[in-house]
Amino acid sequence: MKKIFTRALMGMPIGVAICTVNLIILSLVQGGGEYVAAPQELISSLGELRAVILQTALTAGFGAVWGGASVIWEIESWSLLRMTLTHLAICSAVTFPTAYILRWMPRTPIGAVWFFGVYAIYAGIWAFEYGAIKRQVDAINGKIGKLEDDGGRGQKK
After folding, report:
1. Which listed residue, 26, 75, 80, 99, has the most CB atoms within 10 A of its CB?
2. Residue 40 parent element (H or E)
3. DSSP label at 77?
């Protein structure tokens, strides 16, 4: 629990920082030379200050959940599939509502489909991690096989 709490605390400013970087990019693309503090629809409904406060709070919470959930990858007794599905479920449970509330996505069925389509990136990361872990396991198994071949003396044949 201490590790989850520590990672969650570390994740909070990371979540806010990622949001800030995204807003800077949004401002460069759509801001017409002005900084966009939050999505315009959110500002229109809450006012700029309340929109920024809500956005900061939710992105801090978003970062905390993602940070805390990172400990899932260290549970050695779990399969990679179980880790992935658990991580995906936890992170989706915070990502979708955050995106919906903060107007990061259109509030339509098509917007929801588009949003979850972004999880193709998650699948790509999973495939990369799976390949990396598989290579590590194969390398370890190869070393174990060599040790067994020489009777455990650590000598190469």
Report:
1. 99
2. helix 40-46
3. T
